[in-house]
Structures are given as C-alpha cells and as structure tokens.
Design goal:
Blueprint (H helix, E strand, L loop, with lengths): L1 H22 L1 H24 L8 H12 L1 H9 L6 H15 L4 H18 L4 H16 L1
Length: 142
C-alpha cells in the first residue's frame, strides 16, 4: 500500500518536473526571473521596514515558477489536454473564426493543417512519418 502511494507520488512529481522544465522552458525562465524579482522586493522591503527576511531565495524562485506555470497546472488538474502554447493559440483562433461564421470546410482544413503541423513537430517513427506524408499527398490531390 505504502509503495503504491510512493509510486503514484513519484510519477506525479516526474510528470510535473518534465512539464515545467522540458515542455515550457521559456516559462520556467520567466518564473526564475520573477522569483529573483520577488527576492529583491523582499530584501528592499525588509530593510525599509527593519524586518527580518522570511523566505530564502530558492523559495521565492519556486513561488515565481509556480505563478508562471499556474495556468498549465490548473489545466492539468481540471483534466484538459495539454498542448503547446503555440498550438493552443492557433486552435483558439480557429474556434473564434468558426464562431464568427467561417465555413465548415475551411474550419476543417485549418484544423487538419494544425494537426499536421503539430504531428510534424513531434518525434514520429519512420513508418508514421511516411504515412503522414502519404496523407498530405492524398489531400493535396483533392
């Protein structure tokens, strides 16, 4: 029972670390800078008001990274699929265009292009890449 719980926590921690460090390194950098800024604000505030510092720099850096990644963490908790920010923005633009009255065939074409682009950016096996290329050629002919 205890080992099962540890495995679950380990898996969650590993997934969270991968998401923060690998999936969105730019956001992690922004969070690091935000944490340093918070540390500077704390140092200045404690000196101005003659208080003792309450947090270590690494704690504020952690808070900064958490703040910047809060949206991704919330999406993971709610269970929405996590896709890259660039693709998420493109998907939102397609949704808005569909609501604004874009034709269904054009929306499908845009969604297909978005999926194709996302698949090309992932690491696919040789067979899967050949199949994707064959589908592209087939769709161009239509």
């Amino acid at each position: 029972m205890l080992n099962n719980w540890r495995d679950t926590v380990s898996r969650f921690a590993s997934a969270a670390t991968n998401a923060i460090l690998l999936d969105a390194p730019k956001k992690t950098g922004y969070g690091f800078v935000l944490g340093l800024f918070l540390y500077v604000v704390e140092i200045l505030g404690t000196r101005m008001f003659h208080l003792t510092p309450s947090m270590a720099p690494w704690e504020l850096i952690t808070v900064g990274v958490f703040i910047v990644h809060a949206r991704s963490i919330w999406r993971h908790i709610v269970g929405k699929p996590a896709i890259g920010e660039k693709h998420e923005e493109q998907l939102e633009l397609i949704r808005r265009a569909a609501l604004a009255g874009l034709s269904e065939s054009h929306v499908r074409t845009q969604l297909y292009e978005l999926c194709r682009q996302a698949l090309k950016e992932t690491s696919l096996s040789v067979a899967a890449r050949q199949e994707l290329d064959a589908l592209e050629i087939e769709n161009r002919g239509k």
